[in-house]
Request: fold
Amino acid sequence: MSPVLPDALGGGLSSGHRGTWPVAGVIAFAFGCILLFGFSPTLNPLDIVAGKLFEVSVPRITGDTQVDALAAVQEVRLRGEVEFDYSSTVKRGLVISQDPPPASTLDRGGKVTLVVSRGPQIITVIDFVQMEEKAAEKKAKRMGLAPSVSRENSETVPKGIIIGQDLPVGATVLGGRAIAFRASLGPASRPVPETAGLSIEGAAFRIGASGFQLGSVLYQDSPTVPAGGVISADPPAGTVKDRDSSINLVVSLGGPPLALPNVVGQDIDSASEQLSGVGFVVGRVNQEGSVADPLDGAVTSQLPLPGTPLRPGEVVTLTVRTAKPPPPTTAPVVTAAPTPVPEGASTPAA
Reply:
């Protein structure tokens, strides 16, 4: 009779216990397969270890039909949501885009949005001219056009307003068609005109004709610029400024004031020469004197009075004595004597 050997662990196992281990192993293996094949879409056992048991990879569905795309999404236990949009490049009924993109991961039951093409959009072009630039771009995009904007100066259209468009109003085009807008930059900048030496009226006209406005006018003495002439401008001539900018002027009052000399008693020619020589303008008023008046041609008074400060260019009025002309002389009237009639002669009948 053979001896009974003890179990390696110190005790023997009955035949009943030894039979239960294979059964438990089979059950554990089957459970693992259920987990792997039932819940892991990648059939990768590492998904269970990494905690990705319930995550799925989003399939690529762009370019598929709507039916095929939804079926592919549902196959990996995701749900599809369909939106529609126009496309001039993707045929009607095919998927234009998807969100999230292919190969992204989502939890089971997650949503995949697919945009399905309606085909090309037919657009009737409207008039965008006189619309504000940003509003025109927004409107064009909403209609399905692809706007672009170039900008140019305009003397008549305010800045930021659409001047023109390349597609005619009423034209029929496909969605996605480019449309080019021309928008106004407003009036162009320009140089300040030369006004030095002009009269205030002439300078104001030239400033306005150049697109500027006359600003303030300051008067000051100038020994070189005649009274009323422009001495300088601010900003100076040649400076580039925006249209409608104000141009300020400095205008001459003429030379500094001079004391008016006394010319009373002088003859008019000498007095006029003296006053004109210092820049005054001479005016004359005649005062009739007597016949053969000894003061004939002499200045009897002046306005303003002597010593009054006057600027060159101002008027001095002289009163000049003029002799009264002598009365006209008349020849004496001679009356013819009557012719005597002889005695006895008859007087002719009347």
